[in-house]
């Protein structure tokens, strides 16, 4: 399968027909020359669309309304990219819309790349925002990581945060449960360390 690069994008140039490309997707009047086999292998939604008795089955061109050209182009480049296994196509600017499109077309490998990127970039400063995104797409591994990082925050900080209050109740409880375990482990470490001053009896409250 031939690969070419445009002057502006890293990855495939879909603006002209490539080797054995057999379908044109149109987004915001921009044509993307693609391969049915690649789309079908990547997405069960496209597979059904292109193999079952849908109007698109024998179509040479399919319009995709409601999509943005730049976002859909980035989505296709992730599917086609040789570096996909390294996750180099996902970043801070594109992971949210990649997740949205991947969810619509059930492209699990794109979701996996986004999850991998998010897990590696969760910090105390962004964990609640990422938690909300992960919650929207039921990204369990990402939610687990976010809950772990968020549990290090004092409870009063969490309870005063709009982002935290915007999480589902069960996920708020998950953070508090991890926080309790984190404080219990801290208490045990203090007790085991004979060189330290005795930990205050109210260590749980002092840590919070």
UniProtKB/TrEMBL annotation:
PROSITE patterns to which the protein is assigned, alphabetical: BTB (PS50097)
Record domain BTB: where: 21-88
InterPro entries from the UniProt entry: BTB/POZ_dom (IPR000210), SKP1/BTB/POZ_sf (IPR011333)
Gene3D superfamilies per record: Potassium Channel Kv1.1, Chain A
Any Pfam family the entry gives: BTB
CDD domains: BACK, BTB_POZ_ZBTB_KLHL-like
Top-level taxon: Eukaryota
PANTHER family: BTB DOMAIN-CONTAINING PROTEIN, HELIX LOOP HELIX PROTEIN 21-RELATED
Entry protein name: Kelch-like protein 12 isoform X2
